[in-house]
Write a structure and sequence with these properties.
With 365 residues, the chain is α/β, with parallel strands linked by helices. The protein has helices spanning 21-34, 61-66, 93-105, 141-147, 149-167, 201-218, 236-240, 264-285, 340-350, 355-361; strands spanning 40-44, 72-76, 86-87, 91-92, 109-114, 179-183, 224-230, 251-258, 288-296, 319-322. It starts with 20 loop residues before the first helix and ends with a helix. Residues 1-9 have low confidence and may be disordered.
Amino acid sequence: MIDTNINHVPAQFPSNSYITNRTRQLLHNLVKIGRSDQVILGHQSTNTLSRTGWRGLEESDFKDVTGQFPGMVAYDLGWIERGNGRVWLDGSTSRVVDAIKYAYAKGLLVSLSWHTRNPLDINHDQKNRAANGKVKDFGNTVSKILNDKAIQQQYLTWLDTLSAFFHKLVDDRGEEIPVLFRPFHECTGKWFWWGAGRCTDEEYINLYRLTHEYLSKQKGVDNILWVYNTDRVSSEEEYKKRYPGNEYIDLCSMDFYDYENYKPEVLKARLSKSLDAMRSASKKLGKSYFIAEGGKKNNTDVSYFTSRCAQFFPKDLVAFCFWVNSQNNYYVPFKGDPNAEDFVEMIRENGLLLEDDVKKLKIYS
């Protein structure tokens, strides 16, 4: 049975004291869910991308299999900084705005990431790759953003673009739509220009703080909850080493993917260690936590979801979000997939919250 009583939970002070009432209520309710035995199930770009390419906003591979949307939807704002009205994954920015409005109207939780290109050269992406795939060594991009006034100003214009996007997120009554925002994700990994080894922990922290303060204090973006995100980690210390501080973070998270070369015992050990590290750190920090990206690419094991994947849903998580289905790769089953029945059984066995369940929780009120 779904517990719809999400009152009587101690307040958690938001990182931005001026957030809207609905955004504040969302934080309150997510804290409550994190303290229950309920886990929201999510899917990246669920109503914008699929195995057959772009679909209508009312359609979804996930929905084809389960009969309803997931309880959480996620989108990425990567490359919005180009200013050409398009983003990396989902096509036009207006399409993403429409998708968010559609999901919000259904009462779903919305999460946003940002695979931002390199501010030193907009022709290179989050991994410093040019269009031809060649990687360029820019040195310490974060240090240059923090210390070079011209480069910092360029970066701030990108934040202006983000601000304009967030201000477009309004419902039919003109009220701002609350969303989760996790910039500079997988920060303990080494593949992005903001990652470990690309900049110091202190520099990362200062970049996050600069971004938070500019959007919140200078641009008045009051409808987002700020999320800290790492890749898989091996200890509480590793999880916390780039943490910007409680005054900048509302929720904690990490990304954890399952890989073909992970033997069952390897997956169990690494996932358990990472979850324990995030759990211990987050509890000491007083934050709720979730897995923001995960799953296994192009899975063909018809018992995968009820066996291996079930380990991803400890009951103290707020949510777990599968990565995107596309024409090249997929992370949740699609219509006609032999794994579909096992996927539905996994949801049932673990009591995961989908669209109908989250709607009952009224997380925005």
